[in-house]
What we know:
One of its GO terms (cellular component) is cytosol. The chain is α/β, with parallel strands linked by helices and about 400 residues long. It is built from twelve helices and twelve strands.
Amino acid sequence: MSALFEGLQLGELRLKHRVVLAPLTRFRADRKTLVPTELMKEYYTQRATEGGLLITEATCISPEGLPDNNVPGIWTKEQTQGWKKIVDSVHAKGGLISVQLWHTGRMAHETMRDHPMADPERLPTVSASDVTAPGKTGGTLSGEIDTYSKPRPLREDEIPRLLEDYKRAARNAREAGFDAVELHAAHGYLIDQFLNDNTNKRSDKYGGSIENRCRLLREAVEAISEEMPLSRVGVRISPQFEGTMRFFGASDSNPLELYTTAIKTLDQYNLAYLLLTEPRWFGGKFDKDHSKDPGFSMGLYNPSKFRHLYRGPIIGAGGFTPLTAPDAVHNGHYDAIGFGRWFISNPDLVHRIQQKLPLNKYVRETFYKHGSPDGYVDYPFYEDADKSALVPQEKIGASLESAKL
Ligand SMILES: Cc1cc2nc3c(=O)[nH]c(=O)nc-3n(C[C@H](O)[C@H](O)[C@H](O)COP(=O)(O)O)c2cc1C
């Protein structure tokens, strides 16, 4: 039997298999209220399986740091009730669901100041320091503004308020019936902006030494744990190294030491799980045939550096294929595998992996199609798929040579 189909205990969560839905922002929440929609319920329910873990898209903990329209929130009653319908529907299929808690920090979009859910007192957005994110915004807002704006450094006396926001989100998650919450501390968002030294220039107790830069991570975990037991709390972080994936310009002069300390810090808590992003290079170039995206052919970075530092279960995500995922579990590199893109295009991915059935290809253009069912709930289940359009599992991934395109 494939290692992916053995049971697994993640804190209080009992999984029957190890194919996890990775968190995926899809912009299908209600545009004005940021309440989860019926469409989202259909999407998550399609992907729910008996004893399978779904992790939701990043979900805003407050009106601070709103990145765009159509992302869900979990700070209002209405948003919480919207999530409850999704949770109930996933539970009805025997599935488990964890909600990813998000504060984007400097990745907020300035035009969200005009959004009905914006709070003028929470503008401009905050970060560790006033370092503007490079590049262009990926959002599809009306805006003439397509670069990131300069954030305001969060004052030390405001941090208790931020921690209250995390607590409220965790409380609402519990009320909505979520099995777990996941702190999004990865990918260049607020907590990662505190971790990395090119975004954190502070001289107070949240800046300077690596221990200080890990302080907010620790305090956020502790704040959340006041509302959700640690055995139902996960954390995502995204180690990165020279020449690997960078997230929105956040980087560190000594990433190995930084992420070693962060992981050792998290090891002190008895978390349900740690989710690590594999920083596989993708170079921004994609093959026309997405099954050949270069990241699918590159090796793992994290296990050799971090596995021995962390005693609890670790989920890996980023560039796994149906063929490489079982090996990663079998070899003890990871305890479970989060799938992103292949789970977008295959609502029945768990079944297809188990039965070694070919997969629907994903369509990148519809990943972020605001409010639209296209490319969201209309990918066929295997029985209904046009078999000539499917990609065999063993054809996913290219040679390392082509990964260096
Ligand atoms: C459309 C899209 C949206 C994503 N949104 C999130 C998100 O909200 N939170 C998060 O932690 N990661 C997010 N990610 C990263 C995924 O969780 C995952 O790490 C990534 O897709 C790589 O895994 P894959 O190779 O299986 O696709 C997103 C990725 C994609 C493609």
